[in-house]
Amino acid sequence: MGGRAGGATTGILAPAKAIHLAAAGISLIAVCYGLARFAYGLFVPAFRNTFDLDATAAGAIASGSYVAYCVGVLLATAVTPRAGARVVALAAGLLATVGTSVIAMAPDVVMLAVGVIIAGSSTGVASPPLVHAIARRVSPEVRDRTQTIVNAGTGLGVMVSGPIALLAQDQWRVAWFAFAGVAAVVTLWSAIAVPAARDAAGESSPGAERTRHRRLPRGLLRLAAASATMGVASAAGWTFGQDLLTTEGGHTSPFATIAWIVLGACGLLGAAAGDMAERLGLGRSWVLLMIALGGSLAALAAASQSAIVAIAASAVFGAVYIALTGLLLVWSTRVFASDPARGVGVVFLVLALGQAGAAPLLGIASDLSGSVAAAFWIAAAVALLGALMRPARG
């Protein structure tokens, strides 16, 4: 399982081991994205009460998480082919465990920010090794489907974080200690299930020579623009969604948490992104989903007081977000066919840069306008703009 990976079609895992990899992969993504990173948004109301944060400060802390993600994805992209997928995936799990533990014990806002940054870096480290392992060791016939299924782990993590938050209620530290425990278990599992998938020294994948002589692969700029706009648009939902529902929406904290659980559960539907791209084409799928993303954000901005709208828009946001990241993942492996870890690194780096830049700016817009909904109107407009950034073909 940890032998020479070779090109994308050598060293293929047996079906049972491929399923084991997918299960561990979706769990690691669930921990790093759903718990270590995005659960921050679930607890923004509690953090604001405990540490006396305004929207600008909450957005700045979220931005720090996204910046840490960028650093993580750069390092993981560079290291994965040499160190191997297993080592880098293990590092991602350890960062998630440490970061969530620091958040749980944070005595002040500074340590809260430190914990959020460490936890956020785990997401950047997690994706490249899993994409690399699947691209190198999973049969081509099910490769895209496996990639999008593992990517849907974000929805699983978000869904799991909600019930833990409900059980913990006002004791938010208990919830974060629980996140740390889950992260530790999944880290150990990843060390067993993720193959080394290490590229040998001097080894070339098919098409590597063409990539080496083409500094900018065809389609990269359009892919980067799509990733950036999607990152900007989604930042409002992840960072301020709970805040919107409990403040301007007037809903109770348990209701907002239920909306969060629905968001995560529907995010699992994003696993179908690979099949959607096969049936409708990558470009058409992208346009439809970005329009749906904008619609969900606009609905929350316009009618957050309605329980039906709050639940329905959260459900659409969750499903569409995960599906869009799945499309970006598939899109990146086509642009960077000979170097999938690099491709996903570029995509998720630009996505995170969009989120990092947008989170504090949306927080400032909310404070200046006196309305959290302002952030959602801006994000909805960006999502509609992003619908124009479709792939040139497919």
TrEMBL record:
<feature type="transmembrane region" description="Helical">
    <location>
        <begin position="309"/>
        <end position="331"/>
    </location>
</feature>
<dbReference type="InterPro" id="IPR010645">
    <property type="entry name" value="MFS_4"/>
</dbReference>
<feature type="transmembrane region" description="Helical">
    <location>
        <begin position="371"/>
        <end position="389"/>
    </location>
</feature>
<feature type="transmembrane region" description="Helical">
    <location>
        <begin position="147"/>
        <end position="168"/>
    </location>
</feature>
<feature type="transmembrane region" description="Helical">
    <location>
        <begin position="55"/>
        <end position="75"/>
    </location>
</feature>
<feature type="transmembrane region" description="Helical">
    <location>
        <begin position="21"/>
        <end position="43"/>
    </location>
</feature>
<keyword id="KW-0472">Membrane</keyword>
<keyword id="KW-1003">Cell membrane</keyword>
<dbReference type="GO" id="GO:0022857">
    <property type="term" value="F:transmembrane transporter activity"/>
</dbReference>
<feature type="transmembrane region" description="Helical">
    <location>
        <begin position="286"/>
        <end position="303"/>
    </location>
</feature>
<feature type="transmembrane region" description="Helical">
    <location>
        <begin position="253"/>
        <end position="274"/>
    </location>
</feature>
<dbReference type="Pfam" id="PF06779">
    <property type="entry name" value="MFS_4"/>
</dbReference>
<dbReference type="InterPro" id="IPR020846">
    <property type="entry name" value="MFS_dom"/>
</dbReference>
<feature type="transmembrane region" description="Helical">
    <location>
        <begin position="112"/>
        <end position="135"/>
    </location>
</feature>
<dbReference type="GO" id="GO:0005886">
    <property type="term" value="C:plasma membrane"/>
</dbReference>
<dbReference type="InterPro" id="IPR036259">
    <property type="entry name" value="MFS_trans_sf"/>
</dbReference>
<feature type="transmembrane region" description="Helical">
    <location>
        <begin position="343"/>
        <end position="365"/>
    </location>
</feature>
<protein>
    <submittedName>
        <fullName>Putative MFS family arabinose efflux permease</fullName>
    </submittedName>
</protein>
<dbReference type="InterPro" id="IPR050189">
    <property type="entry name" value="MFS_Efflux_Transporters"/>
</dbReference>
<feature type="domain" description="Major facilitator superfamily (MFS) profile">
    <location>
        <begin position="18"/>
        <end position="394"/>
    </location>
</feature>
<feature type="transmembrane region" description="Helical">
    <location>
        <begin position="219"/>
        <end position="241"/>
    </location>
</feature>
<keyword id="KW-1133">Transmembrane helix</keyword>
<keyword id="KW-0812">Transmembrane</keyword>
<feature type="transmembrane region" description="Helical">
    <location>
        <begin position="174"/>
        <end position="198"/>
    </location>
</feature>
<feature type="transmembrane region" description="Helical">
    <location>
        <begin position="87"/>
        <end position="106"/>
    </location>
</feature>
